[in-house]
Automatic annotation (TrEMBL):
<keyword id="KW-0315">Glutamine amidotransferase</keyword>
<dbReference type="InterPro" id="IPR017926">
    <property type="entry name" value="GATASE"/>
</dbReference>
<keyword id="KW-0808">Transferase</keyword>
<dbReference type="Pfam" id="PF00117">
    <property type="entry name" value="GATase"/>
</dbReference>
<dbReference type="GO" id="GO:0016740">
    <property type="term" value="F:transferase activity"/>
</dbReference>
<feature type="domain" description="Glutamine amidotransferase">
    <location>
        <begin position="40"/>
        <end position="218"/>
    </location>
</feature>
<protein>
    <submittedName>
        <fullName>GMP synthase-like glutamine amidotransferase</fullName>
    </submittedName>
</protein>
<dbReference type="InterPro" id="IPR029062">
    <property type="entry name" value="Class_I_gatase-like"/>
</dbReference>
Amino acid sequence: MTTHEKHFRIAILDMYNGHPNEGMRCIKKIIAAFGEQESVPVEFTVFDVRQKLEIPGMDFDAYISTGGPGNPAPVGEAWEKKFFGFLDKILAYNAKRQNRIKKHLFLICHSFQMACIHWQLASVSKRRKTSFGTFPVHKTSSGRKDPLLNALSDPFWIVDSRDFQVTLPNQFAFDALGAKLLCLEKIRPHVPLERAVMAIRFSSEIVGTQFHPEADAEGMLRYFLKDDKKEAIVNAHGEQKYNDMIEHLNDPDKISMTEAVIIPTFLKNAFNKTFQPAYA
């Protein structure tokens, strides 16, 4: 069988709880573009985790778990238990030597925060104010070596939209899991606050970001240029923040570059490792 006779199967874990969002559109767009650019037959299935308690099995090649609204701290709901069980199941599957072809997982924002809580890697707390807009993030020494971020500058630019933050990484827990901290939020020398963790490689196959790597500059620009959206952002965050965002969304080396690199690189890596020859 050639690699192209078999579909590359991706599960999208929808964590939006029915809330309107741009993330799902962006993720589907990236998956479709990946299939076209790599000439790979790709199929995806969406699982509504929070509303319908849907969780994918281990019969997919790659998994993308989205951002979503609300406090990531668990309160004992059934969907939370299912999601945490899914995280552990992927880890356990990949840990078995007989499972030569591993399962690859990308965790975005809310999903990333929940994984940090579940694996006790860091503190997750409410921010003093919402982080919203486009920001630079800085690679750590591990981040500078990670293939996911190779093609990005240091710092690189991201879209952030969150009320919660991951801080105070627990090095013992990182070491026990084999996790690596990949990047931190922008350096603010005059702010006496812990810098938030912005990306973690949880394992060779599992990686996640606090920010939204799926955000497409073109779509966001169209969205934020609408009068009502502009007014809402200016009222909430000020005119300077709005103008900076528009400038960064128009810059091909900022948000467009991050969108073009991170999830496509994750997918390419997952595809290559899934369909490599048996004795490569």
